[in-house]
Design goal:
The protein is of the alpha/beta class. It has helices at 29-36, 50-54, 58-63, 82-94, 110-113, 125-146, 168-178, 200-210, 226-236, 253-262, 272-290, 292-299, 303-306, 314-320, 326-334, 374-383; strands at residues 7-9, 12-14, 18-20, 42-49, 74-78, 100-105, 153-158, 183-186, 217-220, 240-243.
Amino acid sequence: MTQSHQLRVGDVALDPPVVLAPMAGITNRAFRRLCREQGGALYVSEMITSRALVERQAKTTLMASFAPDESPRSIQLYGVDPDTVAAAVTLLVAEDRADHIDINMGCPVAKVTRKGGGAALPWKRDLFRALISGAVQAADNAAQRRSVQPPPVTIKMRMGIDPDHLTYLEAGRIAAEAGVSWVALHARTAEQLYSGQAQWDAITRLVQELAPFDIPVLGNGDIWAATDALSMVSQTGCDGVVVGRGCLGRPWLFGQLDDAFAGRSIRPDPGLAEVLDIMRRHAELLCELYGEEHGCRDFRKHVSWYLKGFMIGSTIRAGLGLTESLADLDNWIAQIDADQPFPEVVADKPRGRTSSQRRVALPDGWLDSQEIDIDQSRTLLDAELAVSGG
């Protein structure tokens, strides 16, 4: 028996209710296409810096672009200045460049948090309120001028800075009052980075907190297999899931998620021969996007994720990690014994970044008050990142 798990906000319908988490250097146009070829989801861009977008920097313009057949077009924006974020939203809507806009409030990277952005920003509740309200209003105003429905504006956040400075419940309420279309929670603090276990009970609490607002909550954290997504929905009551590191080297996870949410038998992980075909397709798409040399260099970081657990000689692994052309890649792939089943021992294990927790880098005096002062406002304006990608 099939089940319906469709999540709809505005003109964006998700069935299954699955979102690809924005990941710097990963969720470019090539990777999004590769994932779309495997299964259904909302595939979000890399983190786009609002200032760089408004200034129309070439690198950011490319990162914020979509294939002609890519729909819905989903962009995640980062910013610390409400006016700049609003200007970026206005640009996207006025020029019909996005069908969904997500606001990053969860990045734990030091170069972002030390400037008051990402996971640090919700601590300053007045700044958070101004930024989110401004983004929603900018989308509404720009859409009204075009006589179209505004794209959904959503947020993705973490639980807070550390256990002593949790912000997710208050931030969720503020965002709901501002009119966001959903709230996604990575159930870790910024201090945790990607270590330890995600605290799914926090997702449950957020679902309960936002129930009076009738706003969807999406859960993120430790979805390594399709069954993990079903467990998260069942245990927390969330309306959908956001998948990040679990799909690294496993884009077919989205096909398995299709099966899981539809109540079908979940297709098995592919054997090595099929994995190598998917690897080759990924490299080809990157070369189409960036040119062959840049594309092959960009592909190198994916090799270890794709081949995790397979019996591949060290010489071949090293060679694959140094490829500079598709011909070079084909040469190394041809030397691999492809008659290997998928190593189930690593199927549901963590992949990608697993760094240990560390103290969060913050602007001076950031934790002294939850209200922002004039000096901090000036610092934020000066500190707005000019380069996209996280």
